């Protein structure tokens, strides 16, 4: 299928804006933008919700590498907005930037969906890809394109929506932004709920596996819809021509000040009040004053990445933690990656509560709860969330058996006879393995641990030991283990939670149905004794030995840490954005927005460094480490906030606006003086040359 994109001249579209269709006082064009944002956010958050489990269960990476790549991707998503803003403001304009990068975005999502199809390289049809390098390379390419696309359009869409309103439509513009951010939360919430359900399904051509292709394919389809809807409204948009990027101007001004200060570093040059004053030779005092205000706020941003280092682990470490927990809520089953939905739900609840109840109550108590103090409290709440996660992890670890280390070997003894057997192992105390009818669950649980970790995805690992006198066939649902010879054991195979019905069949066609109630993440060895007989009471002598306990800690306990983290986010993030907006010069709010997004990127880089470089043996210890680091950073931030002086950018700008005409005249006079001096020097040089010629 071929798409033709027709881009009308931006100035001509601006002239036609007066005759644009409207609905209830709003330009119709904004509805295309809102639908586009909903679909795009659904696409992004839906893919992101299952990403770390895709790395762990499909690609086969361990928890640390999965966490590292996940946070590398998130960091890229928050680095590329700066590139998108520069492209839109300096070159293509917002509309073309959104369309072009959305195409890149869509291609990336499609590649991700293709990379998750295990049948592509599963030549032996055993359910496992035979060329994992292909799938890994495809997924990395897809993620790079997605990061470029989602990050590149991030600073453009909201601003493009604001451009659709005229000056007299301030009220409608304000309402639009509320609806716009509601569409973001709606897309995030629905996708976080739906895509884990899709992932939990089983699909495949030759063998059924977790349906990651569907979990990635639906977000890809939503991104296609987002692109089509956005292009469909192009005739109705107001498109402003690129006016130059203020971020580049700020960077040039800072660069010139640094170079000029370095060139005049000798003591013979008098010092200036601020190092940015060294840019006065080239830039207006108003711009320099605005840059000073921006740098003052950016300095406060230095400790902030540590908050995001903890916050974004909701999609990585906390999701992996949920895989070792019980998600049975009675009426429904919660998937591990669905627990992330708690955050957007709590945000919708907590924001109005904080604004209408908590903050007014604090004010009535006479406490000066300034924005920077709120942010400090938010950071401390996030550290408490990780303390809660650490305490929960300690409880989870108690349900996991002590597996042998790499320098140890575990030997199991299984006595299928009715009489006890004494065993002597060199270097160990002699012991007796009781007969089958005498054995205890405790002894077998210690000796029959054959797998070295909890089964993946909350599945249960089951194996059969045949102590019967003839071959037996074992099957569950459509899975057949084949004939198991006497005194032999089957391999482990995975069974979902709930009531599992196993069929045992002999060579004569007699069958026995054995039912086992399974939880999440357990392991069993089912023993068929030599006294086993087919018939109505065939299950009486069958013994199921529990090798690994099921996930006993309920997933609902994670709500505590999610609640603390969400409270921290509301107090920290919402307040931080409002503070940045109030302290930013009128034309540099986008610069501070870029700086804010950069703190998110750096925070994710901190996580991947700790995940790869850290050598902590226990996960709870890593949680405590992050909590302690954030507490230390919070103290530093509190000290910085104590010495911060709040500004009124409008007042400062008005002051310099009054001085700007005189400043321009002074610079023009200096330029004229320099030109005159250059002219005089040139004349003098010419006269000297003439005299020398005469001589």
From TrEMBL:
Principal subcellular localization: membrane
Record-level Gene Ontology MF annotations: symporter activity
Gene3D superfamilies cross-referenced by the UniProt entry: MFS general substrate transporter like domains
GO process terms (BP): oligopeptide transport; protein transport
PROSITE patterns (UniProt xref): PTR2_1, PTR2_2
Subcellular location field: Apical cell membrane; Cell membrane; Membrane
Family to which this protein belongs: Belongs to the major facilitator superfamily. Proton-dependent oligopeptide transporter (POT/PTR) (TC 2.A.17) family.
Cited function: Electrogenic proton-coupled amino-acid transporter that transports oligopeptides of 2 to 4 amino acids with a preference for dipeptides. Transports neutral and monovalently charged peptides with a proton to peptide stoichiometry of 1:1 or 2:1. Primarily responsible for the absorption of dietary di- and tripeptides from the small intestinal lumen. Mediates transepithelial transport of muramyl and N-formylated bacterial dipeptides contributing to recognition of pathogenic bacteria by the mucosal immune system.
Name of the protein in its database record: Solute carrier family 15 member 1
The species this protein was found in: Cyprinus carpio carpio
């Amino acid at each position: 299928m071929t798409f033709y994109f027709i881009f009308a001249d931006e100035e001509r579209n601006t002239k036609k804006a007066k005759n644009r269709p409207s609905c209830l006082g709003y330009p119709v064009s904004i509805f295309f933008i809102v639908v586009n944002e909903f679909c795009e956010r659904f696409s992004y958050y839906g893919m992101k919700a299952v990403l770390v489990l895709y790395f762990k269960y499909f690609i086969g990476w361990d928890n640390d590498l999965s966490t590292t790549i996940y946070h590398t991707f998130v960091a890229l998503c928050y680095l590329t907005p700066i590139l998108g803003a520069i492209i839109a403001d300096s070159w293509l304009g917002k509309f073309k930037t959104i369309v072009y990068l959305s195409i890149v975005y869509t291609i990336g999502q499609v590649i991700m969906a293709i990379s998750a199809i295990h049948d592509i390289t599963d030549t032996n049809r055993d359910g496992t890809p035979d060329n994992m390098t292909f799938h890994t390379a495809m997924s990395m390419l897809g993620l790079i394109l997605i990061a470029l696309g989602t990050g590149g359009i991030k600073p453009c869409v909201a601003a493009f929506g604001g451009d659709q309103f005229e000056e007299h439509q301030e009220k409608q513009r304000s309402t639009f932004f509320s609806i716009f951010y509601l569409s973001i939360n709606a897309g995030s919430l629905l996708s976080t709920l739906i895509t884990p359900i899709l992932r939990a399904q089983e699909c495949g051509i030759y063998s059924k596996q977790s349906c990651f292709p569907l979990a990635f394919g639906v977000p890809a389809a939503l991104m296609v819809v987002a692109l089509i809807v956005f292009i469909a409204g192009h005739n109705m948009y107001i498109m402003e021509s690129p006016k130059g990027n203020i971020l580049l101007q700020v960077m040039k001004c800072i660069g010139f000040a640094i170079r000029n200060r370095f060139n005049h570093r000798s003591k013979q040059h008098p010092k200036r009040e601020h190092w940015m004053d060294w840019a006065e030779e080239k830039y207006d005092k108003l711009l320099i004053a605005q840059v000073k205000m921006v740098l003052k706020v950016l300095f406060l941003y230095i400790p902030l990445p540590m908050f995001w280092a903890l916050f974004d682990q909701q999609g990585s470490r906390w999701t992996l933690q949920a895989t070792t927990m019980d998600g049975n809520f009675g009426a429904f089953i919660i998937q591990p990656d669905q627990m992330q939905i708690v955050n957007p739900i709590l945000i919708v609840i907590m924001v109005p509560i904080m604004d209408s109840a908590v903050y007014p109550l604090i004010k009535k108590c006479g406490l000066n709860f300034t924005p920077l103090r709120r942010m400090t409290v938010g950071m401390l709440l996030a550290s408490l969330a990780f303390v809660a996660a650490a305490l929960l992890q300690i409880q989870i670890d108690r349900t996991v058996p002590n597996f042998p280390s790499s320098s140890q070997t575990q030997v199991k003894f299984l006595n299928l006879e009715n009489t006890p057997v004494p065993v002597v192992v060199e270097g160990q105390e002699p012991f007796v393995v009781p007969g089958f009818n005498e054995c205890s669950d405790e002894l077998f649980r210690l000796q029959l641990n054959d797998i070295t970790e909890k089964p993946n995805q909350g599945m249960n690992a089951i194996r059969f030991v045949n102590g019967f006198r003839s071959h037996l066939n074992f099957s569950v649902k459509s899975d057949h283990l084949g004939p198991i010879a006497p005194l032999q054991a089957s391999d482990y195979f995975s069974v979902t939670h709930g009531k599992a019905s196993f069929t045992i069949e002999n060579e004569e066609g007699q069958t026995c149905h054995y039912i086992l109630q399974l939880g999440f993440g357990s392991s069993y060895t089912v023993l068929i004794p030599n006294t086993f007989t087919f018939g109505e009471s065939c299950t009486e002598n069958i013994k199921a030995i529990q090798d690994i306990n099921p996930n006993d800690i309920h997933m609902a306990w994670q709500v505590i840490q999610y609640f603390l983290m969400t409270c921290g986010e509301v107090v920290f993030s919402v307040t931080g954005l409002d503070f940045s907006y109030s302290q930013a010069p009128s034309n540099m709010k986008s610069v501070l927005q870029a700086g804010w997004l950069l703190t998110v990127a750096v925070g994710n880089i901190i996580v991947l460094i700790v995940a790869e470089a850290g050598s902590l043996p226990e996960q709870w210890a890593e949680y405590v480490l992050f909590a302690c680091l954030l507490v230390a950073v919070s103290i530093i931030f509190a000290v910085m906030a104590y010495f911060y002086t709040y500004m009124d950018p409008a007042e400062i700008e008005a002051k310099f606006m009054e001085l700007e005409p005189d400043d321009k005249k002074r610079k023009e006079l200096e330029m004229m003086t320099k030109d005159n001096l250059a002219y005089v020097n040139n004349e003098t040089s010419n006269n000297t040359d003439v005299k020398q010629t005469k001589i």
